[in-house]
Amino acid sequence: MAAGDAIEVHWALDRARDLHHEDHDAALAEAIRCHEIARTLDDATLRCRALVLQAAVMLQRGDLQGAVALTTEAEPFAEDDAAAAELAAVQGQLNFFAGAYPDALAHAERAIALADGVADVSLQVFTRRYACVVFGNIGVSDWHQRLHEVLRLSIVAGHAWDEAMSRNDIAHYTMETGDLDGAEQEITAAFATAQPLAPDNRFALAVFSCTRSEIRLRAGRAEEALADAQRAVDFLTSSGDPNPYLLAMTVVIEVQALLALGRLDEAERSGQRAVERLGERVPQARSMILSTVAAALREAGRTEEAFTVLTHSVEIERAAFQELSALQRGLERATLETRAARTESDELAAKNRELEKVVQELADARSALERRTSQLETLQEQLREQADRDWLTGLHNRRYLAREVGRHAAAPGPGPFSLAVLDLDHFKVVNDRFGHPAGDEVLMRVAALLLGEMRGQDVVVRTGGEEFVLLMPQTDANAAATACERLRAAIRDEPWDRIAPGMTLTASIGVATAETAGDLRALTEIADQRLYEAKRAGRDRVVA
């Protein structure tokens, strides 16, 4: 094949890259076809690009293991800055969904820097579009400026789809600042920009409908919010496999809208349908839906149903932990393959040691493989730690709690064992009155207070929202009640007005104690019931 064939393949990959959000199947088929041509041409850059596009499709479908395998395969072929920029962009998002936030930021920034060096405006848009997921969720200080930069470049490149997505991101940012009218105007502009792109705009319209639903829900327009959320679900499920992360976020908003309208049973059915549709994919997304349903049932006083749903959520969280463990095993396999390739390089160097140039080239290749091995081992360790930690507070999360429940059930330690469930009183008022950033700061401060007051052998778990579980091994009922009273007083007496003038905060705590830790699920249920007794009795108290 001639050089002109390589150019044609580059163009084909460009077209497939631009459409891969809207048509997974077509983009994947084109990427596989281009990879076979690249192998025939022995073109490393084309091989890298084709593999990265396949990884991007896997990522959109929620297949993190498949994306890891493909990016690992692509990395040795990233000899060209443009291909390396695409690879880094996908690696940034992959690391984000795997919970490795520092690496996600580093890859996203590297992708943008490489794209800017190449000076290809379409590549600059692509890298920044993928970085938006990282920057927007982690929260970089210059997020507003970055959003407008992506919008400007999208317009320069003539990419209407990316322009519309940028306007959606700006609408979401505007909503978070509290300007709901401005957010409505921005999302209307996003719809108008994307409408002429039909039929290649269904994913975009789903995103915009989800955003507008959240805007209208915050504005108290629950009926309109519900209609938008259901429209987004229809767009996502109309063809092929939906993006699991977007589907989960949309269903959460749909459930919240139904709750705002007092339609609790419909909210529960909607959440369960979405969980069934997701199947075994992306346990994190399924757990997010069930947690929202459980919280609603609990608020409605339907404690037993809430506990059943929450138990299902914990089981799914355990599946999420297993998924991350499988991802780690994939990384370990990649490390072994890298080492095997290094051994092959060593053997080749021994056979050709009389040729100084060949020896040097192999030494360089060996160093590159060692660096890659080190990177994979570091990512593996980060994934192991991230799987057990809540990203906001740094406390252990429900995955860790699920594993502890199983461990204690299999081999209970010496008793007695106490467990407490702590819930911040009227925390929704904090978010509504002072804003979600202030609410996040409150949660981080509460986490610090809990860690400061508890013993080194105790474990503090954030199970979601404003609820925490305290594990207190070798602690009898009186000691547990005393410790929880100390925690309750510390939270009540903390000068919360340092975060926002006029802010106050209290907590309600339910405590349960058993002779051993053999059945933490039963202990949790008892402590949860006592938490509700504390709430019903007026809050800001411990029931033990």
Write out the CATH superfamily name of the domain at 398-543: Reverse transcriptase/Diguanylate cyclase domain
Topology order in helix (H) and strand (E) letters: HHHHHHHHHHHHHHHHHHEHHEEHEHE
Share in helix: over 70%
Write the CATH fold name of the domain at 398-543: Alpha-Beta Plaits
Low-confidence stretches: none
- Provide the CATH architecture of the domain at 398-543: 2-Layer Sandwich
User: How many E-type strands?
Assistant: 5
By DSSP (H or I, 4+ residues per run), the number of helices equals 22
Mean pLDDT: 83
Structural class computed from helices and strand pairing: mainly alpha
Structure write-up:
There is one protein chain. With 544 residues, the chain is mainly alpha-helical. Among the domains are: 322-386; 398-543, Reverse transcriptase/Diguanylate cyclase domain (Alpha-Beta Plaits). The chain is 73% helix and 6% strand. It has a five-stranded mixed β-sheet, sandwiched between helices. 47% of the residues are buried.
